[in-house]
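Reading is simple: the token line describes the chain's fold. The lines below illustrate.

. . .
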Amino acid sequence: MIVEGTSMTSSRPYILRAMYEWIADNGLTPYILVNADFPGTVVPAQHIEDGRIVLNIAPRAVNDWYLDNDWLGFSARFSGVAESVRIPVQAVLAIYARENGKGMVFEKEEGAPTPAPEPPEPPRPRKPHLQVIK
């Protein structure tokens, strides 16, 4: 039974996870197209073209991969430099296999909520210092 006026969460993160697994399970390379101008998006600026960036998210290309209902993130090397990438799921415009282009383009969701705030970065440990006590 469908209840009118009942709002649902975005289907994008669920479809994104399924497409990622489908592409990887078939031995292909999953790529995503990202709106680099979407609030909260952290990607290597030198690789952005026309406000968009294409990223290889294959398991062999990234480290520390995570994908929840609000955020996608990983670390990877770009031009030999390790960088952290954080992307609101709503900023992902498409996911596809590099080898054959099969995948999915996401439509803009009307009234899509802004991503949940990320937890603050953990504090970095301070350098130890010794003190002489008499």
